[in-house]
Design a protein that fits this description.
Elements (H helix, E strand, L loop, with lengths): L11 H23 L4 H18 L5 H18 L6 H20 L3 H10 L7 H30 L2 H5 L5 H22 L1 H18 L3 H25 L4 H25 L1
Helix pairs in contact: 1-6, 1-8, 1-9, 1-10, 2-3, 2-4, 2-5, 2-8, 2-9, 3-8, 4-5, 6-8, 8-9, 9-10, 9-11, 10-11
């Protein structure tokens, strides 16, 4: 265990990229949980992984190739007027089968397939940093406009039809933002790491927060705390980052569940 690695300039860029991603993905996850479409993240992540590997054959960075598959998945879901988690289950099947077939039949595919699962954040470069920064900026600009409309659509679904509102704009806009987030997440922290950031912090926040604003705060805050702990542990113990991140977030979730159960008994 070498704690001096934490201050190595080599890991500053991956740290910043991962931190920005950790702040952004849980906020998207909160909206997905509100819409009961949390499985979207896993479905789009599988499609991003498949097209990311396919892009390697054309010498395209994984984070760029992944955007193609995720965006097509979001567009297909929107055009088919699919809602709920069923459409994302089909994405998982398609993405999973394509990812394994590409990995098994290409020279670099096998190694990159493992990298996408392991989530080796420490290999992140300028391409990942720029992609994450773009996602962060798009979310900062888009979510304040999207959130009120999506919340209203969730609790008052007939309002859009009665007032003839162009609802497709914010529904498609959010789907595309989630697609971008999962594609960038898969190319930075791995498939399951990205899914964990979207699923687990919002799951915890919905159980402890007392308001919508505090839900967003707790979701991003708990994710950031888990990320910092996982970053230190994985680096100093020479472990793959993705599994370590998922393990830390799971421990957090178990602690939250136990504390809530104890509070209910009092």
């Amino acid at each position: 265990m070498d704690a001096s690695l934490l201050f190595d300039p080599l890991f500053r860029l991956p740290f910043v990229a991962g931190l920005l991603l950790t702040i952004t993905l849980p906020l998207l996850g909160v909206m997905l949980r509100l819409r009961d479409e949390w499985l979207a993240s896993l479905g789009l992540a599988h499609l991003a992984a498949a097209t990311g590997l396919a892009g390697l054959a054309l010498h395209i960075p994984v984070v760029v190739g992944g955007v193609v598959g995720a965006v097509f998945g979001a567009l297909g879901k929107s055009l088919a007027r699919g809602q709920g988690n069923s459409v994302y289950a089909f994405m998982i099947f398609v993405g999973w089968s394509l990812t394994l077939l590409i990995a098994a039949n290409t020279v670099l595919g096998s190694a990159m397939g493992h990298a996408l699962v392991d989530g080796q954040l420490y290999f992140a470069g300028t391409a990942q940093l720029f992609a994450v920064a773009g996602l962060f900026l798009a979310s900062a600009l888009g979510l304040p406009w999207l959130m009120p409309r999506l919340i209203r659509a969730r609790f008052f679904p007939r309002n859009e039809t009665a007032n003839r509102l162009p609802a497709w704009r914010w529904h498609l806009g959010f789907d595309l933002l989630v697609a971008l987030g999962m594609a960038v997440g898969v190319g930075t922290v791995g498939l399951m790491g990205a899914f964990a950031l979207v699923f687990l912090p919002p799951w915890m926040a919905f159980r402890v927060a007392q308001s919508w604003r505090s839900t967003l705060f707790f979701s991003a805050g708990l994710a950031t705390l888990g990320y910092l702990v996982a970053f230190v542990l994985a680096l100093t113990m020479d472990q793959p980052f993705g599994p370590m991140l998922v393990a830390v977030l799971l421990i957090q979730a178990m602690l939250v569940a136990v504390s809530q159960r104890m509070k209910a008994r009092q």
